[in-house]
Specification:
By secondary structure, the chain is an alpha/beta fold. Strands 8, 10, 11, 13, 16, 17, 18 and 23 form an eight-stranded mixed beta sheet that branches. A seven-stranded mixed beta sheet has the order 3-1-2-4-5-6-7, covered by helices on one side. Helix 14 packs across helix 15.
Length: 618
């Protein structure tokens, strides 16, 4: 009997086909579960190896590009998709393709948008990435390549190979770290903009006779090799470490950076970056919020203080309140309150205590006398000994505490008074930019497109610097630091120079003693300077990566030390000296006032004495 006959004999004709159908589907489900288990185990092995490969190569966060040309079937790369969706993340690129070499003139598309999972990009051309983008290319042989551009130079590196068993074998002949590998620019020539910046970037003597005319960048001079200073040292150091050469170009008009709101356009060296004329600006380019909207800065290389300087008049100020400046107003008020509290407390102690009166030592401590003792102790005057016999232990303790507190305050007062009397205090025409507006002083500074000049030109009209620009400056104010210092020291008119401390002191040397310069105000924020790059420059990440190494090695301290030495110069007008005639006059005034008060007291005592005699005679 057949299976069908048996099924028909024992079961109804409807139940029998259902059993066969369920058995068939159960078999298929078990088969699919087996396939999924095998595929998962295989995929897990590949995921571990790709994780290991990405760690070794120093690249993470990638997109996936599938090169879908005619010779490639997508189904062959289904396992790659399963593996890489889990193994890689979102900000860089993996390109799976069948080409072993990149095709000519094909650049990778922009990948700016962030995704939660790897994005699959289908292309039929293998692309070159930017220098700073990590785009890996995996061909049908499992070889991992990177193809990128250094300006026009095409570079290809085989990083390793995935074997058929999923093991990744790295290429031992190549640098594994991303920044070290691509941080070798292979001698590529870069174009940099250069400009003189006092002490930080200078031209050699007679540079104008050596500079070359050039048409590579419009309206510029080729000044390669004609620059010195700390920023030039930094440029040579970066060129050596990153293995690139450079050519330096100076604008003929000397403009740094200026923005024209009416045309919505930048001028100066920033314009050269935006037009693609130069790769970066290699001079002391100051950090500025407005400039940062058009360019990118690397980490700061130098810093300086900006402030107003005047010619030192050496006329010491006649201070009427010299002897009150040891403490501020709040401290004097607090001292007065303490004196009143202590004197009242001591008086009450001497009156309330039952042992106050001692027969052989009558109590002579009136409140006026105790108040006089309290004030005298603050100025080192001992009017009564705490061992006086007419006081009890409570009164003596109170006097002791009074004398101890007074001694501490007196020593502090004495130390501050010696400082005030011994250190000359020049009378300044102004102490803040706002006070400058109320003086006859005119302001001189750097060129109009330099950072210092832009602080005035771009300032809002209602701000202090905006008002200074309108009322204290004209076109002749933007003469450059060297010329400004020269005018300050040689012309008798009221003038002040705004600029960097180091630069002003340095340029004062050829004309007079640098101590002839007196700084009256410094900006509360430092001026940070660095190289500037076009926005999204592929070179900037490598300069910043190298920056931390230079700083850790001590090179940065050595380079900036010679620049900072000018800012640490000390002048004789900051040293100790004898009491000046102005302060001696204030001492005489103090003496006269004291004698006048004594005379008033004498008159009051005389009047009181006569009134007392008159009352007794009645």
């Amino acid at each position: 009997m057949t299976c069908r006959q048996t099924c028909s004999h024992h079961l109804s004709p409807i139940i029998c086909p259902l059993i066969f159908l369920v058995a068939f589907w159960l078999t298929m489900v078990l088969y699919l579960c087996f396939l999924i288990f095998v595929n998962t185990a295989f995929s897990f092995n590949w995921q571990n190896n790709i994780h290991e490969a990405s760690n070794i190569l120093g690249v993470r966060n990638k997109f996936i590009i599938i090169d879908d040309d005619d010779g490639l079937h997508q189904n062959e790369w289904f396992k790659w998709l399963l593996i890489m969706k889990n193994a890689f993340k979102n900000s860089e690129v993996i390109n799976i393709n069948t080409h072993q070499k990149p095709l000519a003139n094909q650049t990778c598309p922009e990948f700016n948008q962030k995704f939660a999972h790897p994005r699959i990009y289908f292309s039929n051309k293998l692309c070159y990435s930017k220098l700073s983008e990590s785009i890996l290319n995996i061909n049908d042989k499992g070889e991992v390549w990177e193809h990128f551009l250094i300006k026009g130079l095409k570079v290809s590196n085989r990083l390793g190979t995935f074997k058929t068993n999923g093991i990744f074998i790295i290429n031992q002949d190549i640098e594994h770290d991303f920044f070290r590998r691509r941080g070798n620019f292979l001698g590529t020539e870069l174009k940099v903009m250069a400009e003189k910046s006092s002490l930080k970037m200078e031209f050699i003597p007679d540079w104008k006779l050596i500079a070359k005319q050039t048409n590579e960048i419009a309206d510029t001079l080729d000044v390669t090799g004609l620059m010195t200073g700390p920023m030039q040292v930094y440029l040579d150091l970066f060129a050596t470490k990153l293995n690139f050469t450079y050519r330096q170009f100076k604008r003929k008009d000397g403009k740094w950076a200026a923005f024209d709101p009416s045309k919505n356009q930048w001028f100066g060296m920033v314009e050269n970056l935006q037009n693609g004329d130069a790769d970066f600006i290699a001079t002391a380019f100051s950090y500025d919020v407005q400039r940062s909207t058009a360019i990118d800065y690397m980490f700061p290389l130098l810093q300086q203080e900006l402030g107003f300087a005047i010619r030192n008049t050496k006329s010491e100020q006649l201070e009427w309140l010299t002897y009150t400046k040891s403490f501020n107003k709040e401290v004097w008020i607090l001292i007065f309150i303490c004196v009143m509290v202590i004197s009242i407390s001591t008086y009450l102690i001497t009156k309330i205590s039952v042992w106050t009166q001692v027969n052989e030592y009558p109590n002579e401590f009136s409140y006026s006398y105790i108040l006089l003792i309290s004030f005298g102790s603050l100025f080192g005057i001992t009017m009564e000994d705490s061992h006086v016999g007419s006081l009890t232990k409570a009164g003596k303790t109170s006097l002791f505490i009074m004398f101890l507190t007074g001694s501490i305050l007196f020593y502090s007062y004495q130390a501050a008074l010696v400082s005030h009397l011994s250190v000359p205090r020049t009378q300044l025409p102004f102490n803040t930019p706002k006070e400058l507006l109320n003086t006859p002083y005119r302001v001189l500074t750097t060129g109009k497109t330099a950072f210092e000049g832009q602080l005035f030109v771009q300032a809002e009209k209602s701000s202090t610097f905006g008002q200074i620009y309108q009322n204290k400056m004209n076109e002749e104010s933007f003469v450059g630091i060297r010329e400004a210092v020269k005018k300050l020291l040689t012309e008798p008119s009221y003038q002040t120079v705004f600029g960097a401390r180091q630069s002003i002191i340095r340029h004062a040397g050829p004309f007079q003693d640098p101590c002839e310069i007196k700084f009256v105000w410094f900006s509360p924020t430092l001026d940070y300077m660095a190289f500037a790059f076009p926005q999204k420059s592929p070179f900037l990440p490598f300069f910043n990566e190298l920056y931390s190494q230079i700083r850790a090695s001590g090179h940065m301290y050595q380079i900036s030390r010679s620049f900072n030495q000018y800012g640490k110069m000390k002048c004789y007008n900051d040293s100790l000296s004898g009491i000046s005639i102005q302060k001696f006059i204030s001492l005489l005034i103090f003496l006269v006032v004291g004698m006048f008060i004594s005379f008033i007291c004498l008159v009051v005592e005389k009047i009181a004495y006569r009134i007392d005699n008159f009352m007794h005679s009645i």
